[in-house]
């Protein structure tokens, strides 16, 4: 692995920015196409799966696997087929012309014929000190990923938008009861979704309320690790109460890691990169976006990996077409 690239200039046919399921899969496919990709790993190689303990919904594994282990396997596979991986952080990009220019925090200048953006997105958290302690022990930001582990139990969902309603409704397929906790007395979700929510007998509501603490046993403490409840404060009366739940799903939105590409690529109001239909192509030819950086609907490792594959194949096709045009 190349880790010492200070003040160097690196030229590549394919530069991959980011290192989650989308980035690693793009690297695997690009390397197998003999494109000799360079992958800049960023601050958090592995992405959100590095904080996901148990993964049961990634195809190909009969038993539950660990998120960090899966990312290590993807990374190793990408390296083994010929990807050059660099521990650096891209801090500046220029997509105005090819080759595209990307500058790294360590001084390296990357010149790329194509770029695949796979910088992902991060779930917003409540900011409670206990959130980190109980992440993977009851605290989650993905019902689709973790809801199955709460079969027959009571859980809480925090939020009031479409994401919170979707999470709550999905969880009713597994859990005994869902308590939706919202800071206001009305939801921001679409009306049709609210109607479905209010009709569901498994869902209860705590209005004008906020979670102030998480109760339970963390790793390293005596007893079986896991959360057992929440401290909830009524924002109108200041009265605090305890809610007995085995899990809390935070659904207050995600933030895509796209600030770097502002004014370079077309994005929606939430900052997600816009791509062509059935494609990973962005508003700039030769620049592709894959994974959570452009997907605010599914946000799954398997869909991100699929988009990484698409991006690499599209980059390969673009390069072939460009070479044919230049040689004609």
Protein model, in words:
The chain is α/β, with parallel strands linked by helices. Helices cover 25% and strands 27% of the residues. It has 7 helices and 19 strands. The strands form 5 sheets. Strands 1, 2, 5, 6, 7, 8 and 19 form a 7-stranded mixed β-sheet that branches. It has a 5-stranded parallel β-sheet with strand order 10-17-11-12-13, covered by helices on one side. A 3-stranded antiparallel β-sheet has the order 14-15-16. Strand 1, helix 1 and strand 2 form a beta-alpha-beta unit. It is elongated and about 70 Å long. The relative contact order is 0.18.
Which descriptors apply to this entry?
7 helices; alpha/beta; elongated; 328 residues; 5-stranded parallel beta sheet; 7-stranded mixed beta sheet
Mean pLDDT equals 93
Main pleated-sheet profile? 7 strands, mixed
How many β strands by DSSP? Answer: 19
Fraction in helix: 10-25%
Shape: elongated
Number of helices: 7
How far is it from the N-terminal to the C-terminal residue, by CA?
Answer: 38 Å
Tell me the Rg in angstroms. Answer: 22 Å
Fraction of residues in β-strands: 25-35%
Low-confidence stretches: 1-5
Supply the helix-strand structural class: alpha/beta
Element string (H = helix, E = strand): EHEEEHEEEEEHEHEHEHEEEEEEEH
Task: Provide a concise account of the structure shown.
The chain has 328 residues and is of the alpha/beta class. It has helices at residues 21-32, 67-80, 129-133, 143-146, 162-171, 191-199, 301-327, and strands spanning 9-17, 38-40, 54-55, 65-66, 84-86, 90-94, 100-104, 109-117, 121-123, 139-140, 154-158, 177-181, 203-206, 209-217, 226-234, 240-244, 247-250, 254-256, 287-289.
């Amino acid at each position: 692995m190349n880790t010492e690239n200070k003040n160097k200039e690196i030229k590549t046919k394919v530069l991959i920015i980011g290192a989650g399921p989308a980035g690693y899969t793009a690297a695997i496919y690009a390397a197998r196409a003999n494109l000799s990709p360079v992958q800049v790993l960023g601050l958090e190689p592995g992405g959100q799966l590095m904080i996901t303990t148990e993964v049961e919904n990634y195809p190909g594994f009969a038993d539950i696997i660990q998120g960090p282990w899966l990312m290590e396997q993807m990374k190793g596979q990408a390296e083994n087929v010929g990807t050059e991986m660099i521990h650096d952080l891209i801090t500046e990009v220029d997509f105005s012309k090819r080759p595209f220019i990307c500058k790294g925090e360590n001084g390296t200048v990357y010149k790329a014929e194509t770029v695949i953006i796979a910088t992902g997105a991060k779930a917003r958290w409540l900011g409670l000190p206990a959130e980190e302690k109980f992440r993977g022990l009851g605290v989650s930001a993905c019902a689709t990923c973790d809801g199955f582990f709460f079969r027959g139990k009571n859980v809480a969902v925090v939020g009031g938008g479409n994401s919170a309603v979707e999470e709550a409704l999905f969880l009713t397929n597994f859990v005994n009861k869902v308590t939706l906790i919202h800071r206001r007395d009305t939801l921001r979700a679409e009306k049709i979704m609210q109607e479905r929510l209010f009709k569901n007998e498994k869902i209860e509501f705590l209005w004008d309320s906020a979670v102030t603490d998480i109760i339970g046993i963390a790793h390293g403490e005596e007893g079986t690790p896991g959360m057992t409840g929440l401290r909830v404060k009524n924002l109108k009366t200041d009265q605090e109460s305890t809610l007995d739940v085995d899990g809390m799903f935070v659904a207050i939105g995600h933030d895509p890691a796209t600030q770097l590409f502002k004014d370079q690529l077309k994005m929606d109001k939430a900052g997600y990169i816009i791509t062509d239909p059935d494609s990973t192509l962005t508003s700039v030819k030769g620049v592709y976006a894959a994974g959570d950086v452009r997907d605010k609907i599914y946000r799954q490792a398997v869909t991100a990996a699929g988009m990484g594959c698409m991006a690499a194949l599209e980059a390969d096709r673009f390069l072939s077409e460009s070479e044919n045009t230049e040689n004609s």
